[in-house]
Write a structure and sequence with these properties.
Helix content is about 40%, strand content about 25%. By secondary structure, the protein is of the alpha+beta class. The chain folds into four domains: about 130 residues, N Utilization Substance Protein A, Chain:P, domain 4, CATH 3.30.1480; about 70 residues, OB fold (Dihydrolipoamide Acetyltransferase, E2P), CATH 2.40.50; about 130 residues, GMP Synthetase, Chain A, domain 3 (2-Layer Sandwich), CATH 3.30.300.20; about 60 residues. A hairpin with a 4-residue loop joins strand 13 and strand 14. It starts with a helix and ends with a helix. It holds the Pfam family KH_NusA_2nd.
C-alpha cells in the first residue's frame, strides 16, 4: 500500500469531524510517530511531512554514514556500502535521508495505524465535547428524548451529543415520549474513560433558579436577585428574592398579576407549588416569612445551635407544618435553622417519644416525618387524613389514638 492510498481518507476525518488543519496534522504526526517507535524502537531521527489537504505524506529516516563493520546503532547509523546503494557518492560522516514507505512498516502496522488514527480523533472529539459542556454546568439546556430506559432517559441534542437524565433527576410526575423535547440544567459533566458523561437534571434547585432568570425579566436584568431556592421536586418549593431598588416589589414582580408570570414555571415543574418570599437579613422575620402562610405568635432563636422555637396558635400549626411536612422542612432548609413548633395556649402536651414503651419507634418516626411529634398534635388530626399522609394502616392509627387519649383521660 502506497502512502497516498492511506492518506486519501484523512480529508474525510477533517470534513466529518470539523477538525482544524493544525490539530489534524498534530494528530496524524502523533499516530505515525507511534508506528515508527513500534517498528524502529525510537522516532527521534525521523522527519514526517504531512499535507492533509492534498493527501501528501512523506516519512524520512535520517542516519549517519559509518565505515563498514562499525555500525553500532542501526537506527541512527548506516554502513558506507548500504548508503551507496541509495546514492553512490556518499562518504563516511555524511548524513543520509532515506524515504520510508508505509509498506515497510508491515500490513498489521498499517491497519493498527488507521485504527489508532480513528481512536485519536474520537478522543479529540470527546475532549472538546467535555470542555464545551463543562462550561455549561448549571445552565439551562434542551435536548430530545432518544431512548427511554428504566433508570434513565437518554437524550440527544442538535449536534447528536448524548445526554443522560437519571430517574432521580426527573420530577416524579414527568412523563416523556420518544422525540419529545426536554428542558433541564446541565448538572454535571465527567470523563468516564475517554467518553464524557453529561447529566441533565430537572430536580435541582438550580433548575428553578434558572427558570426564574429566563421567565422573569427583572431577574434576568439583575433588578431582582434570587437569594435562595429549596425544593421537594414535584411537591413544593420556596424561593427567597430581594431587590436593591425599593421601588420594585420582588415578590409581586416574580408572581405577576394573578400568578401570570410564575404560572409557566409551575407548569414546567409538574404543578410544583412555589412560595416566593421576600429575603431579609432579619432572622426572625425571615423564618416567619419562610413558614408562610402560617401566622406566627413569637419566635425564639438559638443562634449557637441554629435552632428556632416558633409559637403558633393551634389553628395555625397545620399550615406551618404543611402537607406531609413539606412546608416546615423547606422553611428549615431555606433559613438554615432547625424549626420546632410549639402550640400557644396548650398547657398540657406530651412528646410522642414518651410513649416509646407502648408505641413502636417506627410509628413515632412516621408521624414525625409529617411534623407530628406530640400527643395532642396527633389527636387533633383526622384518622382518614393520617392514613393518606402516612404509611400507617387505619387500624394502627386508631390504636395509637386510643393510647394517646388514655393519657389525658388519666
Amino acid at each position: 500500500m502506497e502512502n497516498l492510498a492511506l492518506i486519501e481518507s484523512f480529508s474525510e476525518f477533517k470534513d466529518d469531524k470539523m477538525i482544524d488543519r493544525v490539530t489534524l496534522m498534530a494528530i496524524l504526526e502523533d499516530v505515525f510517530r507511534s508506528a515508527l517507535k513500534r517498528k524502529y524502537g525510537e522516532d527521534d531521527n525521523f522527519d514526517i511531512i504531512i499535507n492533509p489537504d492534498k493527501g501528501d505524506l512523506e516519512i524520512w529516516r535520517n542516519r549517519v554514514v559509518v565505515a563498514d563493520g562499525e555500525v553500532e546503532d542501526e537506527n541512527s547509523e548506516i554502513s558506507l556500502t548500504e548508503a551507496r546503494k541509495i546514492e553512490p557518492d556518499y562518504e563516511v560522516g555524511e548524513d543520509v535521508a532515506e524515504e520510508v514507505k508505509l509498506i515497510q512498516l508491515g500490513r498489521r502496522a498499517i491497519l493498527a495505524l488507521r485504527q489508532n488514527l480513528i481512536s485519536k480523533i474520537h478522543e479529540h472529539d470527546n475532549t472538546n465535547i467535555f470542555k464545551h459542556f463543562k462550561e455549561l454546568e448549571g445552565e439551562l439546556y434542551n435536548a430530545e428524548v432518544h431512548h427511554i430506559r428504566h433508570r434513565a432517559i437518554i437524550l440527544l441534542d442538535d449536534d447528536g451529543n448524548e445526554i443522560i437524565m437519571p430517574k432521580d433527576r426527573q420530577i416524579p410526575s414527568d412523563f416523556f415520549r420518544k422525540g419529545e423535547n426536554v428542558r433541564g440544567i446541565i448538572e454535571s459533566v465527567e470523563l468516564r474513560g475517554n467518553k464524557p458523561n453529561i447529566i441533565l437534571s430537572r430536580t435541582s434547585p438550580k433548575f428553578l433558579e434558572k427558570l426564574f432568570e429566563q421567565e422573569i425579566p427583572e431577574v434576568f436584568d439583575g433588578l431582582i436577585t434570587v437569594k435562595a431556592v429549596v425544593r421537594e421536586p414535584g411537591e413544593k418549593a420556596k424561593v427567597a428574592v430581594d431587590s436593591y431598588d425599593d421601588r420594585i416589589d420582588p415578590v409581586g414582580a416574580c408572581v405577576g398579576v394573578k400568578g401570570s408570570r410564575i404560572h409557566g414555571i409551575v407548569r414546567e415543574l409538574g404543578n410544583e407549588n412555589i412560595d416566593v418570599i421576600n429575603w431579609t437579613a432579619n432572622t426572625q422575620l425571615y423564618i416567619g416569612r419562610a413558614l408562610s402562610p402560617a401566622k406566627i405568635v413569637s419566635i425564639t432563636i438559638d443562634e449557637e445551635n441554629k435552632k428556632a422555637e416558633v409559637r403558633l396558635n393551634p389553628e395555625e400549626v397545620s399550615k406551618a407544618i404543611g402537607r406531609r411536612g413539606h412546608n416546615i422542612r423547606l422553611a428549615g432548609k431555606l433559613t438554615g435553622y432547625e424549626i420546632d413548633v410549639i402550640r400557644e395556649g396548650v398547657e398540657e402536651d406530651v412528646e410522642l417519644t414518651e410513649f416509646s414503651d407502648e408505641i413502636e419507634g417506627w410509628i413515632i418516626e412516621e408521624l414525625s416525618k409529617i411534623g407530628l411529634d406530640t400527643a395532642k398534635s396527633v389527636l387533633e388530626q383526622d384518622v382518614d387524613d393520617l392514613v393518606k399522609r402516612t404509611d400507617l394502616e387505619e387500624e394502627t392509627i386508631v390504636e395509637l389514638m386510643n393510647i394517646l387519649k388514655s393519657e389525658f383521660e388519666d
